[in-house]
Amino acid sequence: MEALLACGGEVNAVVDGETALHRAVAEGTQALVDALLAARADPGVADRKGKTPLRRAYDNELACLALLEARADPDAKDGKGDTVLHCACEVGRDDVAVLLLDAGADKDARNDEHATPLHK
Predict the structure, then answer these.
(1) Could you say which residues form the signal peptide (predicted)?
(2) Buried b vs exposed e over 57-71: b needs ≥16 C-beta within 10 Å?
(3) Assigned superfamily of 2-119
(4) Which of 23, 41, 78, 115, CA to CA, is 20 to 30 A from 17?
């Protein structure tokens, strides 16, 4: 992958509804997440379900930190209106919730069912 990036491979190409950054986050490959972000992968691209890479990283503190440092939107909503904070709270990831709140995530954001992260 790094050879492709060095040759100017398209880091934001969408295949099967997702980018390489989506896949790297989903697979937990932190070195690849870092390499893609260094190559200017866009952390704001949503997949076909409306999920950004940050939304997929709600259970991975290192990936969340890297994406937030790359200016990922902590309040981006998925197809159901959930933010990453909703998801982190739902699975009890207090460490990720703190990162998101420190990055300015809206603690009162409501999803399509009008639930806030506290309801999760």
Answers:
(1) none
(2) bbebeebbbbbbebe
(3) Ankyrin repeat-containing domain (1.25.40.20)
(4) 115
